[in-house]
Write a structure and sequence with these properties.
The structure holds two protein chains of two kinds. By secondary structure, chain A is mainly beta. Chain A contains no helices and twelve strands. Chain B is an all-beta fold. Classes of the chains: A mainly beta, B mainly beta.
């Protein structure tokens, strides 16, 4: 069975600083994809970044980067130069190969950016 | 550029009433999902579909039924609403297991209150 663990229910960061949101995963399948989604207070779910298990380099998308440590089974999201608009819930998710149709989600981390 | 559209956005029901939530996607995605989101619980999968005419149970299917008669539409039904079904409901869709793994695209959610 697959599992995603986000151990930080809430995080605070000062504007313009960097912040790391933790995500660990568990799967025995060698082929999988890891995703981060953002859910602002308005409610919509926004896809941020993707990392494949066979990707050699860590994924980056603008101010978002994914610190992928395969041996430790961690896929932490790093947000550089935090902005007030980054305040939101962040969810880590995983899709596994071999015909598994159901992505697995973590319970989320609430990030608050202080001015 | 509609993506995933959910209707309605808000609804208040009385206990015992029935209703149908509609999800429509225009991205030709094979997979579609219905989630509910409750405070502190993250996203919980209700039902999903891997193609037109197919449906399957997720983590919390009791009290809900679904149908996918057309590839672009996925309907979620509550036959006899209960207060425990008060929640925010999200529909999502994605391509199938092509690699790199594809993210889910979410609708904006339906806020449902059962009195």
């Amino acid at each position: 069975a697959q599992k995603i663990t986000q151990t930080q229910p809430g995080m605070f960061v000062q504007e313009k600083e960097a912040v790391t949101l933790d995500c660990t995963y568990d799967t025995s399948d060698p082929s999988y994809g890891l995703f981060w989604y953002k859910q602002p207070s308005s409610g919509e779910m926004i896809f941020l970044i993707y990392q494949g298990s066979y990707d050699q380099q860590n994924a980056t998308e603008g101010r978002y980067s994914l610190n992928f440590q395969k041996a430790r089974k961690s896929a932490n999201l790093v947000i550089s130069a935090s902005q007030l608009g980054d305040s939101a819930m962040y969810f880590c998710a995983m899709r596994v190969g071999g015909g598994s149709y159901i992505p697995t989600f973590g319970r989320g981390t609430s990030l608050i950016v202080h001015p | 550029n509609a993506g995933v559209t959910q209707t309605p956005k808000f609804r208040v029901l009385k206990t015992g009433q029935s209703m149908t939530l509609l999800c429509a996607q225009d991205m030709n995605h094979e997979y579609m999902y219905w989630y509910r989101q409750d405070p502190g619980m993250g996203l919980r999968l209700i039902h999903y579909s891997v193609g037109e005419g197919t449906t399957a149970k997720g983590e919390v299917p009791d009290g809900y039924n679904v149908s996918r008669l057309k590839k672009q539409n996925f309907l979620l039904g509550l036959e006899s609403a209960a207060p425990s079904q008060t929640s925010v409901y999200f529909c999502a869709s994605s391509y199938s297991d092509a690699r790199p793994y594809q993210p889910q695209h979410f609708g904006d959610g339906t806020r449902l209150s059962i009195l």
